[in-house]
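Support request from a user on the community tier.

User writes: "When I paste my structure tokens into the form, the page sometimes reloads and wipes my input. The last time it worked, I copied everything first. Here is what I submitted, just in case something in the input itself triggers the reload:"
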């Protein structure tokens, strides 16, 4: 899952970036409204954290432009403390949630997780496919109750496929959602990660759909004639 942070306060921006990276997100950071708008309009994110008070272009205008361009990415706005008018304006401009400054990082993470989960149509924070469980709160993965150790990149890839269980996901889509913009993206590494995940979780975990990409299916969702 990949997140954009648009925050002009340097220490807060850096802190959010490292915190979100530590819990398994690919993160891009923009420090003004112009850069933030550009990234949000041209890159692919699973959620965006948008400060409202920004240099160049203010956060509300940025959000309004994304929405007018048809961008549906979930957006959480950061508002000034006790400013109910900021919250109303943010929600009216198309924000999906808000958080007033100062806030606890844990709350931001929980709200982001919920936004990403809802946007991908998942009701629970524990994702499951057959006997595989991925707990988006702890970042832990188990198969048949046994813990499975994944590297950060393997976890990002598995998490994206589990959020989009049953769908065919192309390599390009995976690359867009597991790497930040500064990463040297090589689509061959995706196949390497998939191979490693299959080794750790079972060969049947991820199906390769020739010419299209990958799919992670829940055996329980298969119709009897497929089984
Ligand atoms: Ca600000």
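"...and here is what came back when it finally went through:"
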């Amino acid at each position: 899952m990949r997140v954009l942070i648009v925050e002009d306060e340097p220490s807060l921006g850096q802190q959010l970036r490292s915190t979100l990276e530590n819990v398994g997100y690919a993160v891009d950071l923009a420090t003004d409204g112009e850069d933030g708008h550009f990234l949000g309009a041209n890159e692919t994110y699973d959620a965006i954290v948008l400060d409202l008070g920004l240099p160049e272009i203010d956060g509300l205008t940025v959000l309004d432009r994304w929405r007018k361009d048809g961008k549906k990415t979930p957006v959480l706005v950061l508002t000034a403390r006790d400013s109910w008018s900021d919250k109303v304006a943010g929600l009216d401009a198309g924000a999906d949630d808000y958080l007033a400054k100062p806030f606890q990082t844990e709350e931001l993470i929980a709200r982001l997780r919920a936004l990403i989960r809802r946007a991908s149509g998942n009701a629970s924070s524990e994702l499951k496919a057959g006997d595989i469980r991925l707990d988006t709160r702890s970042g832990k993965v188990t198969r048949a109750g046994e813990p499975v150790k994944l590297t950060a990149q393997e976890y990002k890839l598995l998490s994206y496929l589990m959020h989009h269980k049953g769908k065919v996901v192309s390599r390009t889509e995976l690359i867009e959602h597991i790497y930040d913009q500064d990463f040297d993206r090589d689509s061959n590494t995706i196949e390497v990660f998939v191979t490693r995940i299959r080794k750790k979780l079972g060969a049947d975990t991820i199906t390769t759909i020739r010419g299209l990409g990958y799919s992670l299916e829940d055996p329980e969702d298969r119709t009897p004639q497929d089984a």
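Agent notes: The reload is a front-end session timeout and is unrelated to the input. The helical segments are 10-22, 33-42, 59-68, 84-92, 105-119, 152-163, 171-178, 188-201. The pocket of calcium ion is lined by residues 8-9, 51, 53-54 (CB under 6 Å). Escalated to web team.
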